Amino acid sequence: MTGADAPLVAVFAAYADRIDDLNARRESARVLSRDVTKDSKNTIFLLHRATTGDRDKLLRQGATKLETIRGKIAKWTEYIVSEKEYHQFLYSISPGFQEYVEAEAFLHYLNHGTLVTKDEIQLGLLRCNADLVRISLTTHDYLLGIADLSGEVMRFAVGCASSGNFDGVKHACVFMRKLLAKCEYLSGMGRVKDWPGKVEVMRSSTIKVEIALYKLYLQKLEFPDRPLTLSSDAFERSSDQRESIGCT
How many of the other CB atoms lie within 10 Å of CB of 75? Predict the structure, then answer.
């Protein structure tokens, strides 16, 4: 290498250092995303116990866990230093964001019986760390997280049916019908990867809850003096009855 080549070598060495730094920070963000995913799943498992345990206590514990998760999401700002890098890192952190949205939406449903909005989730993140303004929740991650919410509401309805909570199953059914209608409306957009499959799973979950509600209602009419109950097996059998009610 001649002296004339030295400036060019220095330029490429600087590029190599920048790429190494970018890759190291991307991997750190990916590892943190796995932690967010795991903690969000554990929070959802905890919240499902609210159907049989101390509801208020478990919901408070769930809120505390989500606050801890928001703190971990805030650490992404240590690895993502600009909005441009955020879009470069997005593929690595999307799974964590989607699972967090699902957990946040499930807690919101249990507390209020409604669907949490994208702006409400983003506001909660900003309250945790104002720097998260450059790591804003994308519509893509919000929609995919909300699509998975239907499965959690269906499982919640299973718990309600098993304990004879007719109103809980009815509310879950109405909520899921409305959510499915909105998501089906978006199906024609074709802008969200895996969206048709998500909607199909949502439709299947909604049908299971509809049939379970119908069975509980029949019990209520035929045996008004008996406690209402419906085993989880009834939900599994519901999927086999889809064709009998004209569903495809």
Answer: 15
Give one DSSP letter per residue of 20-48, joined into a string.
HHHHHHHHHHHHHHHHHHHHHHHHHHHHH
Residues 6+ positions from 156 with CB-CB distance below 8 Å: 48, 51, 106, 109, 110, 168, 172
Residue-level pLDDT at 243: 43
Query: 220 with 166: CB under 8 angstroms?
Result: yes
CA angle 154, 158, 160 (to 5 degrees): 110
Residue 247's pLDDT band (cuts 50, 70, 90): very low
In the numeric block, the tokens 């209602």 are attached to: 217
Residue (of 159, 208, 167, 158) closest to 50 by Cα position = 159
- CB of 97 within 8 A of CB of 40? no
Cα separation values, 96 from 34, 130, 137, Å: 6, 19, 11
pTM above 0.90, yes or no: no
pLDDT in tens, 3-55: 666 777 777 777 776 787 777 888 888 898 999 999 999 999 999 998 887 89
Q: How far is CA 236 from CA 47, 204, 205, 208, in A?
A: 22, 11, 10, 8
